[in-house]
């Protein structure tokens, strides 16, 4: 039984130039339609069962910016979700938040609804980097925002971005140190990517944005691994660092290949080996749901070997890697039997290591993780 659910909230004040997520900016007028349609989608896909509501271990609200919804709208959202689901004891409930949206009233509503983890889109503690990233808060806002959140919710993650145009290693290290000084429970550190179709993609092609040299980006990733570790954090995934016991359980479910449900525009679920993806356009998703049609526009049923190879890729994102016994139980394949030639090649390059427990990326392999994973697909 799937015990994780994701809900996509597609509203933002502004679309940042690097963002290619499913969202609409400056269209808060659509929030009422969205909430009505989400309730319809939930009722179609996950109606209450005769045995009662489905129990969840993790619930994640992402975006977009879920905290772009006002208080009554958030109440409607949670009412719709909790008509279908109930939280298991100790369940993790995460909401992504924009620092500029945080108020005592908002945090109180989230906490009263059962939210016990907040992921803040801080991105940088460097004013110049924040301007480049088109963020609407200042570095000096974050201590106050954290204090407000922690009055009710003590599990706070900070999202940070490195390899920003104009950024050097010293600036990135200063951002890491500023974040660590605030003693969050979790850090997510992402290298800036330029996705085709985004404003940043176009600006880079025109020469308006210059990315840091490859060796500088490598040094920034090394700092992202080493500085949190020195402060007592454990890197449990390529981009994720947590204090003991504060790992994001919802994201771990993804990397472990567990089933999960997902709702809202652009959301994709995985149930019994079948992945279904919703219409990516917000207006398109609204029209389909309002017309009583399925929100799904893609369905993919992976063959057993393809599913096993995908699980290798997901598991390798974790620092513990692919665990032999668990992998064989889940897929029916022995890891060497499936990938022996590829494993030997990547091992000879120094990118993976094997032992009795399983297969994992080496430190060097983490720098080229995408290429290593692609070799196994």
Describe the protein.
Residues 1-234 form the Radical SAM core domain. InterPro entries: Coproporphyrinogen-III_oxidase, Elp3/MiaA/NifB-like_rSAM, HemN_C, HemW-like, rSAM, rSAM_horseshoe, rSAM_sf. Keywords: 4Fe-4S, Chaperone, Cytoplasm, Heme, Iron, Iron-sulfur, Metal-binding, Oxidoreductase, S-adenosyl-L-methionine. The structure is a single chain. By secondary structure, this protein is of the alpha/beta class. It has 2 domains: 4-255, Alpha-Beta Barrel (TIM Barrel); 304-376, Arc Repressor Mutant, subunit A, CATH 1.10.10. The protein has 15 helices and 17 strands. It has helices at residues 31-45, 71-84, 104-113, 127-132, 142-150, 169-181, 199-205, 214-230, 249-255, 282-290, 304-316, 324-331, 335-348, 363-367, 369-376, and strands spanning 4-9, 11-12, 24-25, 54-63, 85-97, 117-123, 156-162, 186-191, 234-237, 240-242, 261-263, 268-271, 274-278, 296-301, 322-323, 352-354, 358-361. The strands form 4 sheets. A 9-stranded mixed beta sheet has the order 9-10-8-7-6-5-4-1-11, with helices on both faces. A 3-stranded antiparallel beta sheet has the order 12-13-14, with no helix packed on it. Strand 12 and strand 13 (274-278) form a beta hairpin. Helix 1 (31-45) runs parallel beside helix 2 (71-84), helix 6 (169-181) runs parallel beside helix 8 (214-230) and helix 11 (304-316) packs antiparallel against helix 15 (369-376). It is globular, with a radius of gyration of 21 Å.
Give a nutshell description of this structure.
The protein is of the alpha/beta class and 377 residues long. It is globular.
